[in-house]
């Protein structure tokens, strides 16, 4: 056997050995495979749904008051005085307070809402309830639901820490007034009455008592 043939056989053996070695390390390719991904595309991509800008508008405020308005500035000052204060949760609390106070007033049950009323509002409610009783009238009312709730105005006194927030309510209720004989003199059991009010709630920010008081009513 010639030396050249021996060299070819040796080279062929080395080639077969290398192929088998590579297959054991890399595996085999079957069917269609995607081209290799460039290195720069391997890095994880961060999905940006929004851009956070330092010092940008506080959506908890601007969702309820125009940016830059006096009300928005007052709300921002309230948050500085009491960082846990949030406008959204406050309005949800105002919704519950409205239903509770309104129904208690209609039914003449002033005692259960006394802690949530200022002295002036309590006196006004008590006078109206007393006059109703003197006239021999009784009220049957059921709260149906809230059609509208919006922040109307807000003020904040930095020196005293006193905050006031006026809220506009449009609620629906059934409302019946009966005389001494039990006859209906106003309203209807089947008719839903729409009630419009603007109530102002007040509280000193930064104190332990979390309760807001109703300090003014209007429409």
Features:
single chain, elongated, 219 residues, Nuclear Transport Factor 2, Chain: A, 29% strand, 4 strands
Explain the overall architecture.
The structure is a single chain. By secondary structure, the protein is α+β, with helices and mostly antiparallel strands. It has one domain (59-218): Nuclear Transport Factor 2, Chain: A (Roll). It contains six helices and four strands; from the N terminus they run ααααααββββ. The protein has helices at residues 3-26, 39-42, 59-62, 70-81, 87-106, 119-134, and strands spanning 138-157, 162-178, 184-204, 213-218. The protein has a four-stranded antiparallel beta sheet with strand order 1-2-3-4. Strand 2 and strand 3 form a beta hairpin. The longest helix is centred in the N-terminal third of the chain and has 24 residues, at 3-26. The chain is elongated, with a radius of gyration of 37 Å. Residues 17-53 have low confidence and may be disordered.
- Regarding CATH, which class? Alpha Beta
**Count of DSSP strands:** 4
> What name does CATH use for the topology?
Nuclear Transport Factor 2, Chain: A
Strand content: 25-35%
Oligomer: single chain
Name of the CATH architecture:
Roll
Rounded to the nearest angstrom, the distance between the terminal CA atoms is 116 Å
